[in-house]
């Protein structure tokens, strides 16, 4: 059918080595095609050498053929986390030609905002140049003294009739997605949440079924669902070995959003000292 053809054409474009930077950028930023049940990706973490120990680099590739999609790198920032996301494997700076945007945490490191490549609204730039907000991950500590699994709220712009994303350009904090979400206003956004893992008595651990895509226990492992249709997993992410993680994503997420959500999980897990259970999630 036409949707299958669309999906096939999508992959032909994705794998095309001579696709222009502008077209690749568009493919990374737009919602994944509805026709695809999921796209299986792998994230490879590079902590080699002194600087990458502090500022690891992450490459997202397609799982089956390791076709490179996106790079992310932690940047040095006082008081908050900051990752650049680029189309370039080598130059992961904001000045590189492939710079798409960033993930930036607030000072409490429980809110992670995804922005495109635009400028900060506090910098006195013209409105056209100001960054757009493309998502937010808001972590809530579990009620059980921080010992239970964390709750993730993932907020992304809603998708309009024409298939494009709703426009978010917050100029001050109360206009951000998380601020709206906290007062119960979910207009123009899709709110996803993590599927609560189930306590397994025999294993004495919280578990989720990742259908073989995740093979190591980790606090970073999660599945995202739309609360209105809990049977559909929109994204799943988890550890395969020390520096390899699988990420499966589907509509309404884009590659950029899925990668940004995963980067927030790396940072939140690494800096959180609450000691919640990290045994087997599989």
Helix/strand-derived category reads alpha+beta
Q: Poorly predicted ranges (pLDDT <50, ≥5 residues)? A: 272-282
Percentage of β-strand residues? 25-35%
User: What's the arrangement of strands in the largest beta sheet?
Assistant: 1-2-3-4-5-6-7-8-9-12-13-14
The radius of gyration computed from the alpha-carbon positions, rounded to a whole number of angstroms, is 18 Å
Name the helicity range: 10-25%
- SS summary, helix count: 5
- Main sheet specs: 12 strands, antiparallel, barrel
Instruction: Please report the total strand number as a whole number.
Output: 14
- SSE series: HHEHEEEEEEEHEEEEEEH
Average pLDDT confidence is 87
Shape: globular
| First and last CA, distance | 35 Å
Report the oligomer.
single chain
How is the secondary structure organized here?
Layout: H1 2-14, H2 21-29, E1 39-46, H3 49-54, E2 57-62, E3 68-74, E4 82-86, E5 99-105, E6 111-116, E7 133-140, E8 151-157, H4 177-182, E9 189-194, E10 198-200, E11 205-207, E12 222-226, E13 229-241, E14 244-249, H5 255-271
Antiparallel strand pairs: 1-2, 1-14, 2-3, 3-4, 4-5, 5-6, 6-7, 7-8, 8-9, 9-12, 10-11, 12-13, 13-14
């Amino acid at each position: 059918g036409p949707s299958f053809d669309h999906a096939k054409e999508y992959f032909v474009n994705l794998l095309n080595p001579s696709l222009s930077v502008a077209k690749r950028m568009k493919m990374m930023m737009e919602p994944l095609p509805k026709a695809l049940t999921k796209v299986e990706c792998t994230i490879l973490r590079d902590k080699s050498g002194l600087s990458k120990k502090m500022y690891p680099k992450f490459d997202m590739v397609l799982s089956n053929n390791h076709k490179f999609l996106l790079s992310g790198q932690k940047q040095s920032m006082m008081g908050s986390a900051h990752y650049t996301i680029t189309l370039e494997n080598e130059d992961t700076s904001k000045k590189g030609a492939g710079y798409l945007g960033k993930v930036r945490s607030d000072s409490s490191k429980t809110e992670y905002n995804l922005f495109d490549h635009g400028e900060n609204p506090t910098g006195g730039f013209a409105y056209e140049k100001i960054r757009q907000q493309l998502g937010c991950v808001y972590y809530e500590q579990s009620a059980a003294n921080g010992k239970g699994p964390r709750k993730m709220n993932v907020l992304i712009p809603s998708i309009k009739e024409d298939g494009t994303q709703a426009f978010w350009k917050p100029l001050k904090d109360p206009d951000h997605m998380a601020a709206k979400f906290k007062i119960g206003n979910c207009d123009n956004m899709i709110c996803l949440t993590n599927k609560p893992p189930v306590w397994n008595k025999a294993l004495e651990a919280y578990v989720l079924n990742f259908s073989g895509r995740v093979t190591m226990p980790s606090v970073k492992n999660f599945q995202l669902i739309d609360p209105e249709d809990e049977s559909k997993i929109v994204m799943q992410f988890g550890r395969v070995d020390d520096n390899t993680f699988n990420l499966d994503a589907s509509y309404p997420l884009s590659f950029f959003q899925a990668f940004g959500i995963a980067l927030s999980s790396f940072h939140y897990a690494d800096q959180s000292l609450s000691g919640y259970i990290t045994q087997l999630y599989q």
